[in-house]
Amino acid sequence: LRKQARQLENELDLKLVSFSKLCTSSGRDGRRDRYSSDTTPLLNGSSQDRMFETMAVEIEQLLGKLTGINDKMAEYTNSAGVPSLNAALMHTLQRHRDILQDYTHEFHKTKANFLAIRERENLLGSVRKDIESYKSGSGVNNRRTELFLKEHEHLRNSDRLIEETISIAMATKENMTSQRGVLKSIQSKMNTLANRFPAVNSLIQRINLRKRRDSLILGGVVGVCTILLLLYAFH
Predict the structure, then answer these.
(1) 18-39, pLDDT tens digit by residue?
(2) In whole numbers, what is the pLDDT of the chain averaged over residues?
(3) Would you kindly state where each structural domain of the chain is located, as residue ranges?
(4) 1-27+43-138: which CATH number, 1.20.58, 2.60.120, 3.30.70, 2.60.270?
(5) How do residues 138-157 score in pLDDT, each as one tens digit?
(6) Which InterPro entries match (predicted)?
(7) Alpha-carbon dihedral angle through residues 161, 162, 164, 166, given to the nearest 10 degrees
(8) Is residue 19 within 8 Å of 104, Cβ to Cβ?
(9) Closest C-alpha to 106, from 28, 14, 44
(10) Which of 8, 90, 129, 143 could form a disulfide with 66 if both were Cys (CB 3.0 to 4.6 A apart)?
(11) Is 5 exposed, middle or buried (0-12, 13-18, 19+ CB in 10 A)?
């Protein structure tokens, strides 16, 4: 069983190397074709896909055979007739299981990378077709319609801005009219006060004259009384 396992592992190793080279060369050819031509498919679909599928089936078959051999070794290790060799056999079995796990992981990883590359390149091909159709007559018409729509939107925005400007101007006019009314009322009040000011000024002058006369009378009385007191004191 160990001999069969090692033989299958060697075959798997060679198959995986060839499988990895196929996927890697497909990716490089796809990138080179992408830069060289826009109409050339990135993957040579017919031949490379057949090679990929054939090698994938072969590797899956080898993995299945190796899994069966590992299962047989596990059954033999667990049998009751080899108790003294269980430790060494378990170590050998674990080693072959690890190798099987590594090969399985590498196969699935390489396969997934190839499928991802093919899916991406198919997507890019469909995008190129859309671009080419867009560049055709219908694409030009769509572009012209899009430009007309953008221009119409710009005109609508301009009309909206003009309407806002007119509304602001009307509001400013109303405010200025109201301020002019307020100024007129203030001016009329000022004229009324100016007309009333001469009467107020004459009244103030009369009050000042009366105060001055009262002050003179009071001063004369005080002076007479002072003179009389002095005459009385020296007499």
Answers:
(1) 888 887 776 555 544 444 444 4
(2) 77
(3) 1-27+43-138, 202-234
(4) 1.20.58
(5) 555 667 778 888 888 888 88
(6) Golgi_SNAP_su1 (IPR023601)
(7) 170
(8) no
(9) 14
(10) 8
(11) buried
